[in-house]
Amino acid sequence: MKLDEMTELYISYRRALGEKFKTNTQALRSFMKYIGGDTNPMELTIEQVKPYLYYPAGKVTAGWFIRHTALKGMFHWAVSRGIMTGVPLPIDLPRRLEHMTPYIYSKAELKRLFCSAMEYQKNRSAIYPECMKMILQLTYFLGLRLHETMSIKIRDLNQSELYVYIRESKFYKSRIVTYNHKVRELINTFLKWREEQNMRTELESGLFLDKKGVEMHIDTVRGAFERIRKYADISRSNQSLFQPRIHDLRHTFAVDRLTAWYKENQDVQKLLPVLSTYLGHTHLSHTSVYLTMTDGLLREASKRFESYIKQKNDE
Question: What is the pLDDT of residues 252-291, one digit of tens each?
Fold first, then answer.
C-alpha cells in the first residue's frame, strides 16, 4: 500500500466515526504531498518525517504539535493493521510554546487591514482582493471563525431578514448570526460585484471564489492575510513569536462588543450569555477566552465601578 492510499483510508476511517477531522486531514494530506504519495509507508524513517514537523518555518511552532498529533494517530492506526511496523516519529518532544495572548486590533488597525486587502498584491494572483477584503470584514463584523466565513454559501444569506445561517460549525452546531443594515449594504455591494465578475450565482455556490471559479481554500486565505498584515504594518511590539492572526478578528469583535455595552450602560452580566450564544459557544466559560482585558475595556469597566461606588455613597 502506498502512502496516499493509506492516508485517504485513515481519513475515511476517522470520518466514519462521526468526526469532521478537518485540521488533521489538512495536515496529513500536506504530509503526503511533502513526502510523496508513492512512498511505501513501511520505508518511512524519522529522518524523513522530522523535517516536515518543522515545515515551513524551520522551527517549533503551534503547527508542529498539530502535525505531530495527526501523524501519530495515523501511524499507530497503520501499525495496528499491519500496514506499518513502527511509528517513525521522534520520542522526545520539544517544549511547548508560551501561551498565546490574543491580539486585539484597534479601530485604526482594522481600517488599515481592510484597505490593505485591496492593495497588498504585488504580482498577479488567483485571489480577488475584493474577496479577501470581504472575508476579513465579515469575520470581524459577525465575530465568525474563519472556517465559518469561508463556508458561507449564497443560500445561507438572508438579506431581507438580516442574518446568515452558519451550518454545522464546531461540534456540528448550526446557528443564525444576525447583522445590521450597514453590513447588509456591504454584502449587497459585494454580491453586485460578484455578478459583474460573472461568478456562479446558484444557491449552492460558495460566497468566495477565486479567479478560476473555485471556492477559496482556507490555507490560501491565511497566507494572504499574513501578507496583508505585513503590508498594513501591524505586528506585536513585545518580540513575541506569535504575530496577530486572522482569528484575532473574532477576539476583537468580542472585546469591542463588550466595551460598547459598557459605554451604553447596559447590564453586561445579563448580556454575556447573549454574546456567548452569538459566538456559537455552548458554555459561557468558552467566551471568557475571547475577552482580553484591553485598555479600553478596563477603562469602561472602571467607569462603571466608579459610578456604582458614587451611587452607593450618595444613598
Answer: 998 888 888 888 888 877 877 878 877 776 655 555 555 5
Burial category of 36 from C-beta neighbours within 10 Å (exposed 0-12, middle 13-18, buried 19 and up): exposed
pTM of the model: 0.69
In single-letter form, the type of residue at position 31 comes to F
The cell for 42 is: 513501511
Residue 47, pLDDT > 60, answer: yes
Torsion of CA 91, 94, 99, 100, to 10 degrees: -110
CA 85/CA 41 separation, integer angstroms: 9
* Residue whose grid cell is 438580516: 162
Cα distance between residue 304 and residue 310, in whole Å: 10
Please name the amino acid found at residue 66: I
Most confidently modeled range among 60-64, 144-148, 207-211: 207-211
Give the pLDDT confidence of 117-135 residue by residue, as tens digits. Answer: 999 998 889 999 999 999 9
Q: Which long-range contacts (CB under 8 A, 24 or more apart) does 63-70 make?
A: 64/94, 65/93, 65/96, 66/23, 66/24, 66/27, 67/27, 67/30, 67/31, 68/93, 69/24, 70/23, 70/24, 70/27, 70/28, 70/31
Q: What does the pLDDT read at residue 293?
A: 55
For residue 165, the cross-strand partners are: 176
CA distance 173 to 170: 6
Which of 60 and 231 is assigned the larger pLDDT?
Answer: 231
CA distance 35 to 49: 8
**Radius of gyration of the chain measured on its C-alpha atoms:** 23
